[in-house]
Amino acid sequence: MISYPNIDPVAISVGPIAVHWYGIMYLIGFAGAYAFGVYRAKRSNGLWTKDMVSDAIFYGALGVILGGRIGYILFYQFPAFVDNPLIMVRIWEGGMSFHGGLLGVIVAMYVFARKYQKHLVDVTDFLAPFVPIGLGAGRIGNFIGGELWGKPTDVPWAMIFPHDPLQLARHPSQLYQFALEGVALFAILWFFSQRAKPRYCVSGLFLLCYGVFRILVEFVREPDTQIGYLAWGWLTQGQLLSLPMVVLGAALLVMGFKRNLYPQK
Fold first, then answer.
1. CA–CA dist 2, 209 (Å, integer)
2. Close Cβ partners of 124 (under 8 Å, ≥ 6 residues apart)
3. Is 13 in a helix, a strand, or coil?
4. C-alpha to C-alpha distances, 16 to 84, 157, 262, nearest whole angstrom
5. What pLDDT digit, counting tens, does each position of 140-190 carry?
6. Which positions ≥6 away from 69 have C-beta within 8 Å?
7. How many C-beta neighbours within 10 Å does residue 29 have?
């Protein structure tokens, strides 16, 4: 077993003001996406500019935050929301959903695409390779916060998380997700999109790979206590929400290569 590093979740504290690592991870994600976006924009033959990238990151940040919060409440806290709708604005209590954030980003990118008169999927194809930066950073934030831990295990790298009431050795599933959703997904999408691909393909590969990675990790991640398993003693809400991503991602890849349409200005 490996000792959990027990890092203080508060990175900087000045009087009553406290900056948490999780918030810093969000900033790293957005900053990384902006930097790589600008790099790719310079090689887009005028299809993208630095200002467009900046605008897209701003729209995307709004989509992540609003969609992530709304999605968490609707997907994971709906009974509590019905009893008390005010929990939607209790952001200090935590709670964000990737799948809700994804839907929020899609809506935000639709607005962005309308503004710049671009095809929605051309926008998502351009931005998809940068999303894993934020996903990976977010999982490191989860790890530092000692939350979203895995199931009990006896593997040599198991850890005991300080907030676990049972104090059991568990899978550090946050690090598994960092490796898959962050590092591996970034590498796959970055190299896949090095050369122009038909419309739908990059977005499709993102959906397919993320969905598969998330479904796999959910087998060793502890389900949300307020929901538990949905069926058969193993199906989780995260897996159920990820399955449509796998199906849609595969369909977009087939559609993209079949139609062989390339982005237009």
1. 29
2. 106, 109, 202, 203
3. strand
4. 29, 37, 52
5. 999 999 999 999 999 999 999 999 999 999 999 999 999 999 999 999 999
6. 88, 91, 95, 96, 97, 100
7. 26
